[in-house]
Design brief:
With 481 residues, the chain is α/β, with parallel strands linked by helices. Helix content is 44%, strand content 12%. The strands form two sheets. Strands 1-7-6-5-4-2-3 form a seven-stranded mixed β-sheet, with helices on both faces. Strands 8-9-11-10 form a four-stranded antiparallel β-sheet. Bound molecules: pyridoxal-5'-phosphate.
């Protein structure tokens, strides 16, 4: 048995690196978007459950021929889509090493090194953000889960009874405040936590898409008057649509005045803290009761890897999540219980996800991340300048991170909805070209184009190509209309 097992590893250990190396070597010249339709792919994989096992070589051939060529080119330097990075090679291979050990990082006894390394990377992220010595946290599957964990702490902070007896024991209907630019996981979390999606008060934003603190104050006062219970203020450091950072210090003050939990969703913007040049944009993040930080966004760690950090650390997370099932209840001398991560969040069995983060941080160092983040912001500013010079395009807001939003506004008498359709049409032309991928979003009610530079492989020439592509697409659209 063991010989066969070792042989399978040997075979895969020879073949898989070859596939990976071939794929990444062709990355720069391959289409970013595959041409296949859902129907094509459904047909390609429409096969019955295999009765007998298939040879490894044949399975790998399916990956090479059917899966990889039809994948979205997320690691491409010309992928300008959502906050999805080119993964660091060390992160890719760390995933294989983690799977090989198959540590269950949920409990120290099941994964001593994985628990220790998780504790270590959490410490590094806390230190990076100048979070206090008591701060602690837990890895999560991503920003959505990290926000859910944080908002569970916020909800339970209102009354000790809620965890066991539900939100009906709260002193009134609880309200979470976040800008109209917050990520949808805030609404989902409110639903899951029993507050309901209407329990999230969406606060309007200013012309650059930051939360309006005056409007927040007004909303809280109005809710109090109506007998509602303000529970949590959420600030966003790196909004999903435009990448901007809310006034984190002012939000901390409002939360404090109103005895609310203060959560900062820094899922995307957290890594600004690496850069001496940009760190100041996060001023006030350290005042948060909890922080979401997603290494699988701007730290180039392969999916999935998110984190919730909490200022008062393990105690708060344990109050919110700890349970001791009978099969884990025996006395083990105490010391290791502290590293049982199942006590700090909703996951039981969990992957050794900290390994890829630990390896990535060791590989890049503070300096490597600082330089990359700075270069990507500079490239985004360069793109913004180029767009300003392009005929018929209008930039929206300012570049604060590595996101640039803009609209195509041809000189024609078109209604708002027609213009919205034009943005989508332009996005489709680019998508179909396969030369790059960008997305659209909605900002202050109007559809806009959005570019995020999240690949450390992106250089100025890729931005120049993108600008040329925008210009070509503009001409094509004008001809169409
Ligand atoms: C600001 C913000 N928070 C949370 C999330 C959710 O992260 P995930 O997709 O990893 O769950 C995102 C995703 O883009 C985001 O932009």
């Amino acid at each position: 048995m063991i010989d066969d097992f070792v042989e399978q590893h040997r075979l895969l250990g020879n073949a898989v690196p070859r596939i990976i190396n071939e794929h990444v070597a062709g990355l720069a010249n391959r289409r970013v978007t595959p041409e296949s339709t859902p129907a094509d792919l459904e047909k390609l994989f429409d096969e019955p459950l295999p009765e007998k096992g298939i040879e490894i070589e044949e399975i790998l051939a399916r990956f090479r021929d059917d899966i990889a060529p039809n994948a979205m080119g997320v690691p491409s330097p010309r992928y300008f889509g959502q906050f999805n990075p080119t993964p660091l090679p060390i992160g890719v291979w760390a995933d294989a090493l983690a799977s090989m050990l198959n540590q269950n990082a949920g409990a120290w006894r099941n994964g001593p090194t994985s628990a220790m390394i998780e504790a270590r990377v959490i410490r590094w992220l806390c230190d990076l953000l100048n979070y206090g010595p008591e701060s602690f946290g837990t890895l999560a599957s991503g920003g959505s889960e990290a926000n859910l964990i944080a908002l569970k702490c916020a909800r339970d902070n209102v009354a000790a009874s809620i965890k066991d007896r539900g939100v009906r024991t709260a002193p009134g209907d609880l309200v979470i405040y976040a800008s109209d630019q917050c990520h949808y996981s805030i609404d989902k979390s409110a639903d899951i936590l029993g507050l309901g999606r209407e329990g999230v008060r969406k606060i309007p934003t200013d012309e650059r898409f930051h939360i309006r603190v005056d409007a927040l104050r007004e909303a809280i006062a109005k809710d109090r008057e109506a007998g509602l219970v303000p529970c949590c203020v959420v600030g966003v450091a790196g909004t999903t649509s435009s990448g901007v950072i809310d006034p984190l210090e002012s939000l901390a003050a409002v939360a404090r005045e109103n005895e609310c939990w203060y959560h900062v969703d820094a899922a995307y913007g957290g890594p600004l803290a690496f850069s001496p040049q940009h760190r100041d944009k996060l001023r006030g993040v350290e005042l948060a009761d909890s922080i979401t930080f997603d290494p699988h966004k701007w730290m180039f760690v392969p999916f999935s890897c998110g984190a919730t950090l909490v200022r008062d650390g393990g105690r708060v997370l344990r109050d919110a999540f700890d349970m001791t099932p009978e099969y884990l209840s025996e006395d083990r001398g105490g010391a290791d219980v502290e590293f049982d991560f199942f006590r700090y969040g909703q996951m039981g069995t969990r992957r050794f996800n900290s390994l890829k983060l630990w390896m990535a941080i060791n590989f890049m160092g503070r300096e490597g991340y600082a330089k990359t983040v700075e270069r990507q912001i500079d490239l985004t500013k360069y793109l913004a300048q180029e767009i300003d010079a392009l005929k018929d395009f209008k930039r929206l807001g300012e570049v604060e991170t590595a996101v640039c939003c803009f609209r195509f506004l041809p000189q024609a008498d078109l209604s708002g909805p027609d213009l919205d359709r034009l943005q989508q049409r332009l996005q489709q032309i680019i998508e179909r070209s396969g030369e790059a991928w960008l997305t659209t979003t909605v900002l202050h009610g109007r559809r806009a184009l959005r570019v995020n530079i999240n690949s450390f492989l992106t250089e100025q020439r890729h931005i120049d190509d993108l600008v040329r592509l925008l210009e070509r697409s503009r001409r094509q659209l004008i001809e169409e209309y």
